[in-house]
Design goal:
The chain is mainly α. The chain has 9 helices and 2 strands. Helix 6 packs antiparallel against helix 7 and helix 8 packs antiparallel against helix 9. It is flat.
Length: about 170
């Protein structure tokens, strides 16, 4: 029984060469997307390392938001963590865009809409901790409508629909 399990889970040298050959055949944009996703997820863990290394500096309360009408004190480490989380989302959607472009322009545009949404989301975090809720509803509405237009069958009036939104 144990020998059978060992044989089942053992990778033989020939199988390693097959795996390496499969990795070589992965398209370059997909490899790049995997690297990007891995890097931004590692970036998300850096604030906890920094807080453990220099607790005095990273636990100070600051008011970092750019809006003159908004004020909120937050620990420096949490502000940095939120920023790295925003970068993580943007990087992940960028990687999705790279992969989607390999399949079709329509798939790319559908993902690109939410990539742009997350860039705006990150900017709103820097501005006022995402307190502009009406603007968020508006952005979400436009993102859904734009995706609907992208997914709709190609017609000559689709461009007119997009232009009428603005």
């Amino acid at each position: 029984m144990i020998l059978a399990l060992y044989r089942r889970w053992t990778i033989l040298p020939g199988q390693i060469l097959i795996l390496i050959n499969h990795v070589r055949r992965v398209p370059k944009p997909v490899k790049q997307a995997f690297i990007i996703v891995s890097a931004v997820h590692v970036l998300g863990e850096i604030p906890s390392i920094l807080r453990d290394a220099w607790p005095k500096y990273w636990t100070v309360q600051i008011d970092p938001y750019l809006s003159p009408w908004f004020s909120m004190k937050v620990e420096r480490v949490w502000y940095f963590k939120d920023i790295t989380d925003e970068i993580e989302q943007i990087g992940t959607y960028y990687a999705f865009c790279k992969i989607a472009l390999q399949y079709s322009v329509m798939a790319f545009l559908g993902i690109f809409i939410f990539f742009c949404y997350h860039i705006i989301d990150g900017l709103f975090y820097l501005w006022n901790f995402k307190q502009s809720h009406i603007i968020y509803w508006d952005l979400l509405w436009y993102a859904i409508v734009l995706q609907r237009i992208v997914i709709a069958p190609s017609k000559s009036d689709n461009l007119a629909k997009i232009k009428s939104l603005f």
